[in-house]
Structures are given as C-alpha cells and as structure tokens.
Specification:
With 278 residues, the chain is α+β, with helices and mostly antiparallel strands. The longest helix has 18 residues.
Length: 278
C-alpha cells in the first residue's frame, strides 16, 4: 500500500505543481459543467485524500468496474482469429461478471468551479515559471455520434489557439481566431486554446486561457466576447480555411494506427465515422 500511495502521490504532485496546469483546469470545468456527477467527477485525486484509500477500496473498485460488459478489445492490422485467441489467453477467466454500478445518465447542468493555489511555480532551468491565473469557459456541444459533431470540429479548428511565447512571435502567422483576435492583440495573454470534448451522450466546448493574475477579470471578458462573436458572422475565407485544415488533420490521423485504434474503441458500440462521412 505504501508503494502504491507513494507513486500516486508523486503523480498527483506533478499534476498540481507541474508546469502544465491544463489537466487541472479541464478537471474543474467538467466538474462545473456536470455538477460533479458522472464525467464531472474529479479525475485528479486531492493529496489529502490519498491516506484514506485502502487496499480494499482499490480491490472493490476493480471488481465493480473491470467487467467484460465495460471493456473493449480492439485490434488494427491483426487477424480477427488471432485477436480472439490472445484475448482468451491473456484475459483472466475469472474476470468478474457482476452487475457493478451503472453510471447515471450524463446531464449538462452548468455551474462554477474555483480553485486557489498559492504554491510557487516550479523551476524550469535557471528561472521559475510565471505565476498565472487560468480560466476556462465552456458550454455544452454534442456527442461524438451526433450529426452536429463535425460542425463543432470545424468550429474548434476555426477558433484554434495556443501559446503566445514561440519563435517568430505570437502565432507565427497563424490565422485562427484566438491567435488573431486574442494572442496577437493582448500582450498579457499567456495562452488561449479552444477545445472540444465529445462523449457518448454529450459534449463540452471550452476556451482555456491564462494570464498574469492582474488581468484575470480582463481575460474573462475577452473569452466571453469570443463566445458571443461565434454567433455572429463567419466569413467565407476563414470557414473554408478551417474546413480544409480539419480535412488535412483527419487524413493525417488515418495514417496512425494508434489513433484509428482509439477511435474504433471509443465508438465500438456506436457508429464509427468513416473518412467519406466526414
């Protein structure tokens, strides 16, 4: 138990105190969007809760959730007979077949989530990282099986975004909205990125951004303005650019078996989107 908790503690310390705060921000916005239920539960365990986790808790979780009805075995570029043979060989024959706990339906509720942390940023090289305020604003989008899913993919590509500190200046000539209207316009914005999180029953479209704490409220206003302008006019050039870029990304992803493997696994009980459908 000590070794397990020590490894968990090391991983969580890296999440909370590391340079990349994106997982924590994503965790918080999901918690707010789904009222802390289903996919809204925190995925990063608070450090103070680690000592309360016992071996029986872990084994109970394993037996309740690691069941055949909740597993998917996927193969790409492998003979089906071989896949079945090795699955039968390496999956334990006494794998629990109990009913377990069924998850309630995922319902978008909306809400707010705040987290304050005075821990100084980690040292990267001779200097420590800047102290930043991280903000995420999001609204419900669509599931990965809905017809609207592709539209949200186009919107995500159109908004784009990234970090402001890169060779050649903010954006390096990129044409997405968050580069042109946020990163290139407000010098105090450290990063701004649009993200679409699709699930089986719902989805969440967010813009995550960061700035110096003195500009926290200004950053919120900038993000709200971007959401409002999504409902306004989108000129033909930026729409076609986003669609072309999305097609290029999709075709490139089809060259990687690991990505195909994940896509089939996620949608094995539903429709698998073929290239022609996009």
């Amino acid at each position: 138990r000590f070794v397990v908790l020590w490894k968990l503690s090391s991983g969580i310390n890296a999440e909370y105190g590391g340079a990349d705060q994106e997982p924590i921000v994503t965790d918080c916005v999901h918690h707010a969007a789904y009222a802390g239920k289903s996919i809204g539960r925190f995925k990063i365990c608070p450090l103070e809760s680690l000592t309360e986790i016992s071996r029986s808790d872990i084994m109970s979780f394993y037996s309740s959730n690691f069941r055949p009805s909740r597993m998917v075995l996927v193969g790409v570029g492998v003979d089906h007979g071989d896949l079945v043979k090795f699955g039968a060989k390496y999956f334990p024959s006494d794998l629990s077949t109990g009913s377990g706990q069924d998850e309630p339906a995922t319902v978008y509720t909306g809400g707010q989530c705040y987290r304050h942390d005075d821990t100084p940023p980690p040292m990267i090289g001779p200097q420590e990282l800047p102290t930043l305020t991280h903000v995420s604003i999001g609204f419900e989008s669509s599931s990965h099986q809905a017809e609207e899913y592709v539209k949200f993919c186009v919107l995500n590509t159109l908004m784009g975004g990234g970090g402001s500190f890169s060779a050649g200046g903010p954006g390096k000539g990129m044409y997405t909205r968050l580069y042109l209207q946020v990163l290139n316009r407000y010098h105090w914005v450290y990063s701004a990125l649009a993200l679409n999180h699709p699930y089986q029953e719902t989805g969440l479209f967010t813009i995550n951004a960061s700035s110096h704490p003195n500009h926290g409220w200004d950053l919120v206003q900038v993000l709200i303005r971007q959401f409002k302008e999504m409902g306004g006019g989108i000129n033909h050039a930026e729409l076609e650019r986003a669609k072309t870029q999305l097609k290029s990304t999709l075709l490139m992803n089809l060259e990687y078996r690991t990505i195909i493997l994940e896509d089939i696994g996620r949608s094995s009980s539903q429709r698998f989107f073929q290239r022609s459908r996009f």
